[in-house]
Amino acid sequence: MNPTGRKIQEQYADTGGFTDHVFAVTSLLAYRFIPRIRDLPSKRLYVFDVASTPKELKGLIGRKIRENTIIENWPDVLRSAATMVAGIMPPSQLLRKFASYPRQHDLAVALREIGRIERTLFIIDWLLDADMQRRAQIGLNKGEAQHYRMAGLNLLASIIIFWNTDQLGKAVQQRQKAGLDCHPELLSHISPLGWAHILLTGEYRWPKS
Length: 209
Prior knowledge:
By secondary structure, the chain is mostly helical. It is built from 7 helices and 4 strands, in the order βαβββαααααα. Helix 1 packs across helix 5.
């Protein structure tokens, strides 16, 4: 919910980021939610009229959408969407609240039903749209690459902190051996986080011809 985030049209996620409430909220906020669902064949489809479902699809149907629950709670659904769009409450915080509500909470149930509609439509699109599957794979690969980059930066920061701490300790020991004052009252203010003295890209030396 920032200027960059509002330009996003599709949001990719793995199975761990998928719930029916997420499908509902992203739809209300006009995002296309495209999760890569690992156990997709086990997911059921939801319809408004089970009796009119073709017999070939009967085995894939979970149950009927609770349409009346959505209609009765529609004003609250719109208020929830307006709260998120206005920035009064971040979507992540609202989703946590919905997840903590008891199962019989009307608004949470209505959003779950909306999410099931959106999830059903998504599954149909996913199965028919190879380009969507490709976009999701590319998007998730980028996310994983960013994750690895962040992990690498964390490792680099840890190495720098370790090296600085080790060198600071040696400097203190050398001063103590030389009988010099180490100013203990100042040591607590020394941070090992600095890296201006470290050449992160290494040093290149070209042999003379």
